[in-house]
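Minutes, project check-in
Item: structure for the 313-residue chain
Input as provided by the requester:
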Amino acid sequence: MKYLMKKTITLILTLLTVTFLTFIAFEVIPGDSATLSLGTDATPEQIEALREQLGYNKPVLVRYKDWLCDAVKGDFGTSMNYNLPVGQLIKERLPVTITLAVLSILLTVVCAVPLGIVTTRKEHSRAEGIHQFFIHLGMAIPPFFLGILITFIFGLTLRWFVPGTELSFSENPSQFIYYMIYPAIAVAVPKVAMMTKFLRSSIKRQLGLDYVRTAYSKGGTNRHVMYRHVLKNALIPVITFFAMIVAEVFAGSIVVEQVFNLPGLGRLLVTAIGNRDYPIVQAIVLYIAALVILMNFIVDVLYQYIDPRVKAE
């Protein structure tokens, strides 16, 4: 219980620090939403009146406190560009980003775990070089470039899907999921390569330990030792790496959304940055930071149940 309380306090303090630094960062950047909203033809008096109305003339700490209290209630302010509540804009686009992330994570797990086991078994064989080549190739290709290749090959050449199509899950669920598979592959391939390499290294370390030799000496088969002993222990360090992947997938699919013209948080964030729509940018940065911190928190909590040594410490 003490361990859980300690991690919870750390999570809250880290999240507060990130939100404060994010808020201060936008104070340093020249210009604000008031100037952008009124345009270059606005008089200084008009700009000053709008700044007063929006509360920009209040001290920084007071505005941060007001923004944080409203954010806790789910109120992230009003977009100056869309003239709509920021929460509503995020709510409309969040399902697309979540769908893309979930499909990418599923593809990563389904592909990486078997590949990590198979490549370990094929060590010192002729196939090892081929496996290593494709793993390093997958790690080297950026998701956005892979998205462009997928669009060119499967969209423009083979015509398996129409690039740039905007589909709604409520209107056509099957077509929506089918279209989302292609950007999910672009996001997942580098993650599959990285997780396969990491899992393979972890399994190799476990195979060299004494308990594995003991298991074999008791008559355990390769399959029994791998799935009953080695894989369970090898997955412990992989959990941390997987949590980083999950956070990166949820937060880092912005460019891929642009490539496939997906109406998710990525497009909203890029548009908001270009328009200096700080309420939207602050809300999405808070979402990304909270997700990364939450995933680390979940990993820390899981560790004390998976690895008894954490409890001992």
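Outcome recorded: The chain has a mean pLDDT of 82.
No further action items on this chain.
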